[in-house]
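Pipeline run #58 for the internal structure catalog. This entry was flagged by the ingest filter as a single-chain record with no existing model, so it goes straight to prediction. Upstream metadata was stripped on purpose; only the residue string is passed forward. Reviewer on rotation: M.T. Logging verbosity set to normal.
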Amino acid sequence: MAYRKTVASLVAAAALMGTSAASYAATDITWWHAMGGKLGEVVNQISTDYNASQDACSLTPVYKGGYEDTLTAGIAAFRAGEQPNIIQVFDAGAATIIGAKGAVEPVEDLLKANGVPFDIEDYIAGVRYFYADSDGKMIGMPFNSSAPILYINDDAMKKAGVEAPKTYEEFEAIAPKLKEAGYIPLVQSHLPWEFVENFKSRHDLQFATNNNGYDGATGTELVFGEPIKNHFTAAKKWLDEGLFGYYGTGWGDNQQPFNEGKVALWIGSSGSFGGIADTVDFPFSATFLPYWDAVEGANTASFIGGAALFAMSGKSDEENKCAASFFEYLTSPEVQYMWHRETGYVPVTEAAYELAKKDGHYERTPAAEVGIQQLSLPAGEWTKGYRMGFYVQIRDVMNRELGKVFSGETSVEDAFATIKADGDKLLSRFAKTIDN
């Protein structure tokens, strides 16, 4: 009888323990992302460390392919009611996810509702408003943020006896000497991002009507004036004279000649710093994306590139609390500094930037600071970013038409006329898909 009582007591205790364990089970949340390779390894490490830092939430990162694949999967999942808690969306897709009615919870609202302190001024200047609405409310949490900067082959500069240019006028002065020294003077890796979008920002030029699209989709149209047309006229001349190299729309196609030591100056992403440091066998440095001194108002800050994290709607209070908890962890100075140090992407908060400086990171690797410094340059009326739907397709139009300029198939004037016409049609189609 005593034995039976003992067994019954153990069973009851086990049941009670099971109930207690269930009541304290961690809340599961998922994070869909587009970071492959080494970047994916860092994402996995951040997730593992977050899970180890607390026991209320369990975060599972899921690689969904490239940027466009991840966005497409996220929209489809939302329509099916199977969306993740957090999704990474790249700069060109921001308008699509924000414009999908009811798809996301503004990150600023999410944090405040869950008791997480939030002040947009805590973020570095260049990232504060790119993923915000027209009133300045942050909708997406900046994550892998970068700036287009000028990488420098120091050996090439030394051999040609020149200094790296700050302006395109200075580039035109030194380019023949770099060519004579046996180098391709300049290449770039992404025409829409570096030679169009950030040309607009570095020269404080309007990119689209309706406040660059932030004030609504209806009636938004692209704006192209003489400065950007003059820039591509100059670039085509450089190409014809052997002062500029263009190898197609593939990022790696244009970066590879720089990595091989054939190119003196390469316009690439500040987020490429870590990979370059591990790849090239020559000394390199970096400086700001050049600008035309002749354009009035030039030398303002650049747009960011990369992606942000969005909290998808339709989740329980417990899951939203965990999403807010993860965002708080992710933006802590220590985690942001680790992300910056391991990948080359900029730290998105002022506190993380200060931690990196205090640790001597930029004394050891000066080029790692250039992107942050460029994003912290004086702002202008048109430097916070743009918000345009179907922008992935608009970039495709730019790549197509600007590639034709370089191949001699069309003129600069005709290329931009086509970009505007086709781009405006896409913007109009997007406006019909959303409620403004």
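catalog note: Strands lie at 27-33, 57-63, 86-90, 104-105, 141-146, 148-153, 184-188, 263-269, 284-287, 305-312.
catalog note: Confidence is low (pLDDT under 50) at residues 1-23.
status: ready for reviewer M.T.
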